[in-house]
Design a protein that fits this description.
42% of the residues lie in helices and 23% in strands. With 215 residues, the chain is an alpha+beta fold.
């Protein structure tokens, strides 16, 4: 898959607009742990070829919460939120795995978007989808108990890593879920006492995925 295939409206763009985007796009490979975007910098549009990125927001106290993950063939627009008038996001995007991606600088993309209705409409669709992700997250935080959120997170990690043995610390889980490490530790110990997981240093082993799914 090449970068222009990420845009279903590509054939609706004029040759001039296609050339402008083609001239500006650049490919980048990043190692696990690399911070690709932080604060309200306008990095540009991120097109994930292969890998896994994490988008999170930080509180004034330094607490984190994951708002979504980006996997193969995903697009991240919030790293270029300055393209949308009156909207800015303080967001950090890091690589959770070694990742290859394309970046379209915000200025270049914005110029084409202003002149191309098909691209502007598609961009609005992407932004609406991301807002839906964020609203879903807010609903989880406000209305769902922490045991259910933690069970869902462990099952999500199991699917992403394709293993029942999750090499992840309690601190990392807390950062994903926007809570304190002590809260995660207490709930994991409860899960262990109920036979759903087994804990060891830096590892959470899922023992009974069916019960987690019931939660």
């Amino acid at each position: 898959m090449v970068w222009k295939d990420y845009f279903p409206v590509w054939d609706q763009l004029t040759p001039m607009h296609q050339e402008k985007l083609a001239m500006s796009v650049r490919r980048r490979t990043v190692s696990k742990g690399t911070v690709i975007h932080s604060s309200i910098d306008c990095t540009g549009l991120l097109l994930v070829e292969r890998g896994q990125l994490r988008a999170c927001i930080l509180s004034d106290e330094g607490r984190e919460i994951t708002i979504y993950r980006l996997l193969d063939q995903d697009i991240c627009l919030l790293s270029a939120s300055c393209m949308i008038q009156n909207i800015q996001f303080e967001i950090m995007i890091t690589a959770e795995r070694d990742t290859s991606l394309w970046i379209i600088p915000a200025d270049s993309y914005r110029k084409v978007m202003k002149e191309s209705a098909p691209l502007a409409n598609y961009t609005n669709e992407i932004m609406a989808a991301r807002f839906s992700d964020v609203m879903w997250l807010m609903e989880q935080i406000m209305w769902k108990s922490f045991d259910k959120r933690l069970a869902g997170f462990l099952l999500e990690e199991r699917a992403l890593e394709e293993t029942d043995v999750l090499k992840i610390t309690h601190e990392a889980i807390a950062n994903h879920l926007g809570t304190a490490r002590e809260v995660v530790t207490r709930m994991l110990r409860y899960f262990q006492s109920e036979g759903m997981v087994k804990l060891s240093r830096g590892v959470v082993k899922i023992v009974d995925s069916h019960r987690l799914e019931q939660l």
